[in-house]
Amino acid sequence: MSRYVAILAGGSGSRLWPLSRARMPKQLLGLLGERSLVQATVDRVAPLVGPEHILIVTEASHAEQLRDQLPELPAKNILVEPTRRGTAAAVGLGAVTIAARDPGATMASLHSDAAVIDGEEFRACLTAAFELAEADDWLVTMGARPTSPNTGMGYIEVGPEIGTFNGRVAHHALRFVEKPNRETAERFIEQGFVWNPGMFIWRTSVVLDEFDRLLPAISAGLGTIGEAIPTAGAADTLQAVYPRLPVETIDFGIMERASRVATIPASFGWSDVGSWGELFLIAPKDEAGNVIRGEHVGIDTQGVLVHGTDRPVFTIGVQDLVIVDLPDALLICNRTDAERVKALVEQLQADPAWKPLT
Fold first, then answer.
1. pLDDT above 90 for 12
2. Each residue of 60-71: pLDDT tens digit?
3. Which of 1, 94, 151, 243 ranks highest by number of CB atoms within 10 Å?
4. Hey, which bits of 166-253 come out as E strands?
């Protein structure tokens, strides 16, 4: 049975402003090294499925940048949404494309803008998920073991064991819970819940049946798009049909409502790199516990993230700050307030004078 990976690459990453912007979102940035997050995601899965079986689902504004960053992928594997219609439509587009090319295939749906520390363990867990999906009609999600009671994460309740695949134990996924308060998140961790990193694995036939059952309006449009894929009118059909699909997430539209959902709890060092605070936690640090990109000289400086570009950054007597110094914008905030950058971006977007900076 053939295995494919579809990587969703359409997010904006506004909480990493001013580095991540609409024209250059975080998946295109080298936040943890020279390779961008999307390049690192492709590097991570290529040993399992090969470039021919890796698809990127994105929208038009970043398609050319992705082609430039990922020359190893066939041009036909960059799937361009005419407009954003949510993750359900994006995942569905990947599924019908794979099904049209290779009926009976199994696919994984991953996000392009997350970080994984242990690539070898990730591949072992993904292999286990493929084996489970191929063995029976499961919708499989990999569950990341929590490292903190993070209130910005979705959680999965882990149920009874299903079996062992590639040395990893799979469980029934009993329910999904989005962004609980801290007290609830702490209780979830005590009860063995895992984070939902949005990594889904299934046979294309199984997930498309779930679209038909749970999201019939999206399913009908995807069916039309899928039927046109082998024809000369495929591009025109996509342009005509896709923008009319209802907006929905794959999590709410399918995963939270399906009955046969499994999860494989995993410890491969996952992070959504969702804010400067999250980046600080996973990035390499110097002897003073600082994360430094660019030129920096500090005295009595501890626990600081500095991202500089054209000029050196100097600090004295500060701790637990985020300092992002770009040619057209300077951000300074406490690390504990890093999640509030999104609110700042929304404020800038509402003001015509500042919107070009977002």
1. no
2. 989 999 999 999
3. 94
4. 168-178, 194-195, 200-203
